[in-house]
Amino acid sequence: MTEPAAEAGDRPTDLRVEYEEAPENVDLTAVPRFSWRVATDRRGARQVAYRVVVGREREHVAAGTGGLWDSGRVDARTATGVEYDGPAVGADETYWWSVTLWTDAGETAWADPAAFGTALAPEDWRGEWVAYQPGGGRHERLTESVARSRRRGRGRRERRRRDPSVGAGRPRRVARGGGGRPASSRPRDRRPDALLVAVGAGDYEFAVE
Description:
Blueprint: E1 11-17, E2 33-39, E3 47-55, H1 58-62, E4 69-70, E5 82-83, E6 94-103, E7 106-107, E8 114-117, H2 139-162, E9 173-174, E10 195-199, E11 204-208
Parallel strand pairs: 9-11
Antiparallel strand pairs: 1-2, 2-5, 3-4, 3-6, 6-7, 6-8, 10-11
């Protein structure tokens, strides 16, 4: 016996994965979760079952052929947090999915397919610390540079304490390379390995590598 079709106005919409519309960085270590809404003008309309399909080709998914996963009919009113239960998804891939519903008026049409992308695998991430790096590496040179800057800052503060004529200790910026020239008179170094360090109560700042 063929089940009746729902009215033309009944259709799943607002498809989301992990509560986002078409996310591009779905975590590989978690199970993707799907959600949707029922678009209808009928008063009292309700979902009684759903079927989700996931695949790599949009046109196949639009026709209700998943290729990767087909939940089959699930008798439930759940429309949020529906977990993917197919083969493991790959890293840095794009997938399409859709859903059809059974309401109190019958089965709906398939929703317009929505896409989601997966994040890179952890081993594919590459990068370097641009400042302090725990456990070794460039931080040793950085730490020594900071120590030298702090020693110079303490020396300036000591001289100011001994000689009131020097001034009231107004903070000054010193650019990379030193020379005592204020940073305002030299081009500002914007390389990512530049670091401004506030030294103690004197609020001196030095650019170090």
